[in-house]
Each structure stands twice: as structure tokens, then as C-alpha cells.
Amino acid sequence: MSRAKGSQTPYGWTTKKEFGSDVPPGKRALATELQRLCRLLALNADGNAPTQKQAADRLHVSDTSLSRYLSAEYLPDIGIVRDLHAIARTDAGGMEEAGITLTDLERLHSEAAAEQCGSCVKLREEVSALQQQAVESAVELSTVQAELGAVQKEGVILREGTAALKREVRELKAREVRTLKTSARRAIRAGQRSRLTARADAALLPVPPRKGDRQQSNPEKRAALTVARQAEALQNGGRQDGVLALLRHSAEVLSPAEAAALVCVLREGQLDELAGTLIHIYGRDNPDPHVMRAAAQLHQHGAPDDAAALLQAALSTRQGAP
Fold first, then answer.
1. 261-303 pLDDT per residue, tens
2. How many CB atoms lie within 10 A of CB 61?
């Protein structure tokens, strides 16, 4: 075989192939023999050694595939091995020049294939294990998703229950306020009827009032007692909002005399805080004539301090108004 021309190393593409550390010996031996056979390929017409692509074209494979066969990355088909042996033997001038029989070359291919099959078995086992892990993970994910769905459904039910409870509490509060207002109106109407009855009786049987008598008339006191008992019950039950609503409503509908009577009753029952709150609300929300009459009634009942506080509440409100 003639020596190739050119400055580059002839058949250099067959000697620059490096085997990886994980290449088994049988596959390494086959790739080494394939490299040697490629170096037996005939020179081109111009006297240069064939390139890797030219060699691949003669074997009817791609340049990349041939490179992988020679570097033991891939195992070539037995037909490609036989074609390379036949071409190399022809170009070299016979079997002896080829340096290896086709039988020996086929044996190297069989040994390399056996090694690869062993690797395939190991890979199949690894793939099977990974598939099993994937199935278990999918089952676990499905369980977690089901639990999450149950928790979300429970959350929806709890939110709906909470909203229903809030609505029920609002309705109960509104109902209680309406009940308190109705009770207060009934007590006030009862006091008014009793007062009218007392006035009618007084007109039929006039009795001069005793000098210095500071007690409230029975109708006014009965109305005040009714409101005071309701306020005390609400306060004992911790319903400060109900107490405040009751006092505000009472301040709106009570006459000056009834308001003064309610303050005195609250003081007698040692409900001083409620009495002070009523004084403030009545002085703030009622017109001056009513406030003046209520203050006069308080003076008559022997409560000058409460009368002064009532006038001061009214005065503070008027001065703070724009």
C-alpha cells in the first residue's frame, strides 16, 4: 500500500479516538480492531489518505456514526463490521494483509455485544426500579391530593357555618334590641297611663301636696323601675351594648320627670355608672327645655349634683357644636 501524501498524519482520525473509562474490554478490543482496519483503506486518487467522511461514505454510514464506532461509544451492526473487513481486505491485498480473519472479527463483535447485553439488563433493572418509584410517587401524590381536597371541602363547610352563625348572632342582637325597645315603650306607656289616672283621681279628690315631699309619683317611679331592672339584668349578663341601646332609647322617649325618676332609681340601686351614662345621653340628645325640666325634677328629688351634671352635659354639647 503506497504512503499517503500531505503534511497531516495519514489516517489521523483513527488514532485520535479515546476510550472512556467505562468502556468494557470486549467493546474496547472491537473498536481497536476497527480503527486498524480503517487504516488499511486505499488512498484516494490524489495520493492522500481518505478522510473519516470518505470512509463513512464507503460503509454507507454517517461520519458521526463511524466516529462513535471507532471510539467504542456505539456498537456497530454486524453487517457494517463485515463490510469494513471486506473493503479493508480488498484494499490491503488479501486476508493476510488484513491481519484478522472475518471469523475472529465476528467473535470480537459477539463478545462486545454480550457485554452490552449485560449492561442493558442492568439498565432495564434500573429503569424498572425507577418506574416502580414513579408508580409509588403517583399513588402518594393521589393520596395527598385527596386529603387536600377533603381539607378544602371541610374549610368551605366551616366558612359557611361561620357565616351562618354570624348571621344568626346579628339577627339575635337585632331581635333583642327590638324586644328591649318594645319593653321600654310598654313601660313608658304604662307609666303614662298611670300618671293620667292619678291626675284624674287628683282632679276628683284634690289633695294638697305636702311641703318638702321629694318622692317621685308612683307612675313615674314604676316606669323608671322597669327600665332600671332591664338595664341591671343586661349589665349582669355582660351585655353592655344592650344596656347602652336601652339607655339611648329611654333618653329619646322618656319625659323629663321620668328621666329624672330613672336617674334616682339607678342611684338607689347603686348603678351609678348607668346613671351617669343616662345623664350624659339625656343632656346631649334632648332640647334645652327638656333638660331644664329634668334638672329641676332632680333638684326636687334631692339630687343637686345630678342636676348640675345634666346641665353641664347639655352645655358641653352645645359649646362643642359647630
1. 989 999 998 999 999 999 999 989 999 999 999 999 999 989 9
2. 19
- Taking the C-alpha atoms of residue 55 and residue 62, their distance in angstroms, rounded to an integer, is 9
Q: CATH classification of 12-100 is 1.10.287, yes or no?
A: no
CA distances from 136 to 82, 92, 122, 129, 131 (A): 47, 60, 21, 11, 9
Tens-place pLDDT, residues 140-178: 898 999 999 899 988 899 888 888 888 888 888 888 778
Read off the C-alpha cell for 265: 332609681
Max CA pair span of the chain:
160
Gap between the Cα atoms of 263 and 274, Å rounded: 8
Q: Answer yes or no: are the C-beta atoms of 285 and 255 closer than 8 Å.
A: no
Q: Which three cell numbers stand for residue 141?
A: 401524590
Residue 217 corresponds to which amino acid?
S
Tell me if 41 sits within 8 A of 14, measured CB to CB: no
Report domain extents, the chain. 12-100, 192-203+213-320
* Rounded-to-integer distance, Cα 290 and Cα 259, Å: 10
Show Cβ contacts of residue 193 under 8 Å, excluding neighbours closer than 6 positions. Answer: 219
Tens of pLDDT, residue by residue over 181-227, are 777 777 666 665 665 555 555 444 444 444 444 445 577 788 888 89
Question: Which secondary structure element, helix H or strand E, spans residue 246, and what is its range?
Answer: helix 240-253
